[in-house]
Design brief:
Rossmann fold, Alpha-Beta Plaits, 6-stranded mixed β-sheet, 4-stranded antiparallel β-sheet
Length: 318
């Protein structure tokens, strides 16, 4: 439904996106992640037909059409990063204007206003709206056409809890209806909750594309267990490293002489933790405390960004 093939975009000497190849299938939700200036908005604008590739291709729909063609634009709904409407119009008037522009049936006006949950503010002028209300109005406008392709640039920005719940429902329905959804976000929790796949851009380059299952495995590898032990028995660490090679004692070994417990740090997936505990118990060591934490998307994200910036230091933001 959305297909980038070696998509490259330059603005003069500035490269925004470099050789991006990415597909979003029918019924799939893909989160496009990356630091500021990584090319996320440029990528969405190319699919929306608002900018043309310097090289490469962007296709929409099935059968595929070049994103720059008017027919391709008719099958998409696009929410820009910064939403603005005339202050003098009411929310209802904004929705009606875009409903007629996109040729949506009259009943859609009521449906999307209900989704926007403006709490009776539909007849008030947009100039009186908060930032979150304007964002919800933008989402309502994006919902008007019965489009098979959604392009959403920072859709959760400024949304309050009610707006977030409505947006989560919107994405779930889009997936169930077989639509293709590509969205950008700096809110990693939203991405982790909604996306089937995660594409990470750094310096205009695609540095990772992970399915939800692959992401789960990557995060599991970055889990951590901490054991508070009564002592540091000889040979324990060597035995544990056959199960968890990165296991190590925390702190200074001399601290135990002062009567403090020893802390053992065991990185790795949750699956190895029972075996680690069995190995500790076989040596008769008293376990006085245990904590465990799973890998986090924000940590993995920072690792991917750092790896890319290290590989391409000339592209790092200043």
């Amino acid at each position: 439904m959305i297909s980038y093939r070696a998509f490259t975009k330059r603005f003069g000497v500035q490269r925004a996106v470099e050789s991006l190849t990415l597909d979003v299938a029918r019924g799939e939700v893909v989160a496009l992640l990356g630091p500021n200036g990584s090319g996320k908005t440029t990528t969405l604008k190319a699919a929306a037909g608002l900018i043309r590739p310097t090289s490469g291709e962007v296709w929409l729909g099935s059968p595929p059409l070049p994103a720059s063609e008017p027919e391709a634009r008719r099958i998409l709904s696009y929410l820009p990063q910064k939403v603005s409407f005339p202050d003098a119009l009411t929310g209802a008037e904004v929705v009606e204007f875009y409903r007629e522009l996109r040729g949506a049936p009259p009943e859609r006006r009521h449906e999307v206003l209900l989704f926007a949950a403006l709490n009776g503010a539909g007849e008030r002028s947009v100039g009186t709206y908060s930032g979150g209300m304007v964002q919800r109005l933008g989402l309502a406008v994006a919902l008007l056409p019965d489009a098979p392709v959604f392009l959403l640039d920072e859709p959760t920005a400024a949304l309050d809890p009610d707006g977030l719940c409505a947006f989560y429902g919107l994405v779930e329905r889009a997936r169930e209806d077989g639509r293709a959804v590509l969205f950008t976000s700096h809110q990693l929790g939203d991405a982790e909750r909604l996306a089937d796949r995660f594409a990470v851009l750094v310096g205009g380059r695609l540095v990772a594309s992970l399915t939800a299952s692959q992401l789960k495995d990557r995060l599991a590898e970055r889990g951590l267990m901490r054991l508070r032990l009564a002592e540091r028995p000889a040979g324990l660490l060597d035995a544990l490293r056959t199960l968890a090679p990165a296991a190590q004692w925390a702190g200074d070994p001399r601290e135990q002489a002062s009567g403090r417990d020893a802390e053992l740090v065991v990185p790795g997936p949750a699956a190895v933790r029972p075996q680690v505990l069995d190995a500790v118990r076989r040596l008769g060591v008293d376990v006085r405390g245990l904590t465990a934490e799973e890998g986090r998307l924000d940590v993995l994200y920072r690792e991917l960004v750092a790896e890319s910036e290290s590989a391409h230091p000339e592209e790092k933001e200043t």
